[in-house]
Amino acid sequence: MSTVKGFPEHFLWGGAIAANQAEGAFDADGKGLSTADMVPYFEKKDYVNLKELMHVTSESIEKAMAHKSAAGYPKRYGIDFYHRYKEDIALFAELGFKVFRLSINWPRIFPNGDDAQPNEAGLQFYDNVFDELRKYNIEPLVTLSHYEMPMALVLKYGGWANRKVVDFYVKYAETVMNRYKDKVKYWLTFNEINTTLIEPFTGGGIVEDRYDNFLEASYQALHHQFVASSMATKLGREINPEFRIGCMLARMIHYPATSSPDDVHQALVDNQFNLLHTDVQVRGEYPPFLARYFEENGIHLIKEPGDDQLLRENTVDFISFSYYTSLVSTVTPEKYGVTGGNLYSTVKNPHLERNEWGWQLDPVGLRTVLKEMYDRYRIPLFIVENGLGARDTVEADGSINDDYRIDYLRQHLTQVKEAILDGVDVMGYTMWGAIDIISASTSEMSKRYGVIYVDQDDQGNGTLNRYRKKSFAWYQKVIRTNGEDML
User: Fold this and answer.
1) In angstroms, rounded to a whole number, what is the distance separating the alpha carbons of residues 425 and 429?
2) What is the pLDDT of residues 289-347, one digit of tens each?
3) Of the candidates 118, 272, 363, 416, which lies 20 to 30 Å from 64 by C-alpha distance?
4) Which among 147, 253, 246, 254 has a CA at the least distance from the CA of 203?
5) Do 251 and 385 form a contact (C-beta atoms < 8 A)?
6) Is 4 inside a domain boundary?
7) In this predicted structure, what is the pLDDT of residue 347?
């Protein structure tokens, strides 16, 4: 009989941000431009097709490169974590964080990506951040690449479609892993690696108008990232055998719209495409169904000798993933209405509520995902992004009563606990985001996720003062009781 009662004793509770959405200081202390610095803010948005807001062309890149300030490009100014990290980490410590997920901004370390020597000012910044976390006994969980590729590697080499970028990434990974080998234990090689197929510029620095076969270029970029991830994993274990190195997936579970065998099969196919990334990084090989897909779509993947062995021999220690919503698959989408999402849109699920941005709220889906992935891979799982984007209101007395966020988190954490009782090995949970940051998909500030409010609007105006929301005290209590009190 199982003796599991709930969240394990050493469960890693915390929160998460990304450098490109939080740090700001886009040109400070020798930092180079990143791919995120190319994405402007649009006042009018189509929330059913958010990919259009992140779509980058050669023309838009030229315009962004000529724009020397942060104005109009929110990810260039973020929430000024670069200068306020001590204040923010003190708040995370007050919450009781055991772990804090953040990313290293690659062009802070190698401004052009192919530099001979790293930028010491950038290295020192993260030394300072990790030292501050250590002061409060908070473990850093570091993502090496989180939509922050040096823009120079896109302009000079064509992004991840070029094999040379593998070597630049590995040099970067080796540099920071050596530098922080005694300060960081948990590493993720790429954020939501499947984004390289969903939105190839964001994930892989692939500019659509520069390729005749855009789909082939995207898969080639993805292969290079798999190779780079395996090389970094191998190096990391040599640098410090105590490192725990994981992959990271945007988990998008698909339900069939009906019990029609065709819809059921379509959902299976869609789930196969989502999980092909973890298949490679955990099982060490490409799934068989891709061979037919490549042939039918004119995709000729170029591998170097030894690539398959490298993937096979350097699989990850754990799987981390984001989970926000579930999707619906059908062979007849014209029969159904469409709703929005993060980097995708989907058929509406009549059984689920949706938020303003079209995300279908599905806490039970998180339990399903956990059980399905653990059955498939049997290695530890880590939920490193889960949260609710919403418009928060500051009341006259200064309070922010975000009961809707508490309800969302409570429902999802209840399902995590159920999955643990089902026997799933869950390492931890880092809510997205610990603090309000710039939205990845819409570049808005008004789409808020944090339990800490940041006084800044969509145009970058505000004091940047930090305030505790009602959800702050709630999440603090959850962590303090190790998930036993979620009321």
Assistant:
1) 12
2) 999 999 999 999 999 999 999 999 999 999 999 999 999 999 998 888 777 665 566 78
3) 118
4) 147
5) no
6) no
7) 86
Ranges under pLDDT 50 in the chain: 1
Return the biggest CA–CA distance within the chain. 65
CB hemisphere CA count around 283 (13 angstroms): 14
How many domains does the chain contain in total? 1
Catalytic member of 385, 395, 418, 444 = 385
Residue 1's pLDDT is what? 46
Percentage of the chain lying above the pLDDT 90 cut:
90
Q: Which domain holds residue 363?
A: 12-480
- Whole-angstrom distance, CA of residue 42 vs CA of residue 55: 12
- The verdict on residue 85 lying in a domain is yes
Pairing outcome for strands 360-361 and 353-354: antiparallel
CA distances from 136 to 72, 93, 343 (A): 36, 6, 35
What CATH number corresponds to the domain at position 225?
3.20.20.80
Told to judge if 385 belongs to the known catalytic residues of this protein, a careful annotator would answer yes
Residue type, 237: R
Listed in sequence order, the residues at least 6 apart from 329 whose beta carbon sits closer than 8 Å to its beta carbon are: 254, 255, 256, 257, 263, 266, 267, 269, 270, 347
Upstream peptide bond of 433 is cis (omega within 30 degrees of 0): yes
Give the H/E segment covering residue 14: strand 12-16
Which residues lie below 8 Å from residue 140, measured CB to CB, with a gap of 6+?
Answer: 99, 100, 101, 102, 129, 130, 133, 183, 184, 186
Asked, for residue 1, whether it belongs to a domain, the answer is no
